[in-house]
Write a structure and sequence with these properties.
Largest sheet: 8 strands, parallel, barrel
GO biological process, one term: monoatomic ion transmembrane transport
Shape: globular
Low-confidence stretches: none
Structural class: alpha/beta
Family: Belongs to the shaker potassium channel beta subunit family.
Keywords: Ion channel, Ion transport, NADP, Oxidoreductase, Transport
Helix content: 40-55%
GO molecular function, one term: oxidoreductase activity
Number of helices: 12
CATH topology: TIM Barrel
Distance between the termini: 31 Å
Strand order of the largest sheet: 3-4-5-6-7-8-9-10
Protein name: Voltage-dependent potassium channel beta subunit, animal
Length: about 325
C-alpha cells in the first residue's frame, strides 16, 4: 500500500480507502462487512469512510460493530462520519443541517454508532444555506478542541465557501478545514481539477475522493443496461440511476473507448479508472466501495498499475474521454 499526506496535514492515509455508501446494511450484511474490512486492513487500508445518512445510521452501526469485533488497534486506522442530511428518514429541522446543535449532536451519535471515542475525520456533507459559516466553523473547532474530532472538512462545497471557512478560522484563531470529499472520476473532473486548484495552493487542502468508477459506469457493466444486482437497481436509488445514466449514450461511448486501453494493459476498466484518479497529486485517497469480496480484492490490486500509466497511456485515456 502507498500512503499519502492529507493535504498539508501530518496525517497519512492509504492511497486506497474503503467506504460504506449504498452497500453497508443493504447489499452488505455483517458477515460480508467483516470480511471486507478485514481484507482491506490486511492490504494496508487505514481509512474507513461513513456518514450519518448512509442507510439512516445503519451503515455506521454495522461498521462500528464489525470494527469492535475485529479488534484492530485503534491507532492503526482512521474512521470518518459526515453531518448534514441527518440519520432519520424524515428528520426534523434540528436533526439535520450544520447548526451548532446538529453538528455536535450528530458527532456524539456517530461516536456511539461507530463505537469509538473520536472521529479521525468529520465532514460537513453539504453546504447549509440556513446556517452562517461562522457557526459551523466554530462548532467544528469546538469538537477538535474537545478531542472528539481530529480533522474536519467539507464535502461538495463550492470553493468560494471553503475559502470563506478558512477566512473565518484564520480571523478567529479556529481550526480550519483540512480536506474536501468531492466526486472525482474520468467523467466528472472540473471541480477537482479547476475549481479547487486555489484551495490546494492557498490552504493545502487534501481530498478524499468518492465515486472513482462513476457509480460503476466506468467498469463497463452498464454498457448494455442495468443488471438486477447492481447498486443502480437498488430501491431508493432511482435518483442515482438517473444521475449516472444521464447523457447515457455519450458517456457510455467514452467508457467503450477505454476498453481497448485497459485490455492492452492487461487490467480491467475498473482498475484503469481507479489508477487514473491516483495520478492526480492532489488526491489524498481514493475511496472504494464494493458489494462483493472479490470485487474489493480486485480493486485493491490497482497500485501495481501506476508505473505503467506513462504519459503516452494517459494521453490515450484523455483522448478516449474527450
Amino acid at each position: 500500500m502507498q500512503y499519502r499526506r492529507l493535504g498539508k496535514s501530518g496525517l497519512q492515509l492509504s492511497a486506497l480507502s474503503f467506504g460504506a455508501w449504498v452497500t453497508f446494511g443493504q447489499q452488505v450484511g455483517r458477515s460480508l462487512a467483516r470480511d471486507m474490512l478485514a481484507m482491506a486492513h490486511d492490504h494496508g487500508v487505514n481509512y474507513f469512510d461513513n456518514a450519518e445518512v448512509y442507510n439512516h445510521g445503519v451503515a455506521e452501526t454495522l461498521m462500528g460493530d464489525v470494527l469492535a469485533d475485529l479488534r484492530f488497534p485503534r491507532d492503526s486506522y482512521c474512521v470518518s462520519s459526515k453531518v448534514f442530511f441527518g440519520a432519520r428518514p424524515n428528520p426534523l429541522p434540528t436533526q439535520r443541517g450544520l447548526s451548532r446543535k446538529h453538528v455536535l449532536e450528530a458527532c456524539h451519535q456517530a461516536l456511539q454508532r461507530l463505537r469509538v471515542d473520536h472521529l479521525d475525520l468529520y465532514f460537513c456533507h453539504r453546504p447549509d444555506p440556513d446556517t452562517p459559516v461562522e457557526e459551523t466553523v466554530a462548532a467544528m473547532d469546538l469538537l477538535v478542541r474537545q478531542g472528539k474530532v481530529l480533522y474536519w472538512g467539507t464535502s461538495e462545497w463550492p470553493a468560494g465557501l471553503i475559502g470563506e471557512a478558512h477566512r473565518v478560522a484564520r480571523e478567529n484563531h479556529l481550526y480550519a478545514p483540512s480536506m474536501e470529499q468531492p466526486e472525482y472520476n474520468l467523467l466528472h473532473r472540473e471541480r477537482v481539477e479547476q475549481e479547487y486548484a486555489p484551495l490546494y495552493r492557498d490552504y493545502g487542502m487534501g481530498t478524499t475522493i468518492w465515486s472513482p468508477l462513476a457509480s460503476g459506469l466506468l467498469t463497463g457493466k452498464y454498457n448494455d443496461g442495468v443488471p438486477n444486482d447492481a447498486r443502480l437497481a437498488q430501491p431508493g436509488y432511482e435518483w442515482l440511476r438517473q444521475a449516472v445514466l444521464e447523457q447515457g449514450g455519450e458517456r457510455i461511448a467514452k467508457v467503450r473507448r477505454l476498453a481497448p486501453i485497459a485490455a492492452e494493459l492487461g487490467v480491467s476498466q475498473a482498475q484503469l479508472a481507479i489508477a487514473w484518479c491516483l495520478v492526480n497529486p492532489h488526491v489524498s485517497t481514493v475511496m472504494l466501495g464494493a458489494s462483493r469480496l472479490e470485487q474489493l480484492e480486485h480493486n485493491l490490486d490497482v497500485l501495481r498499475l501506476l508505473p505503467r500509466l506513462t504519459p503516452d497511456v494517459l494521453a490515450r485515456v484523455e483522448q478516449a474521454v474527450a
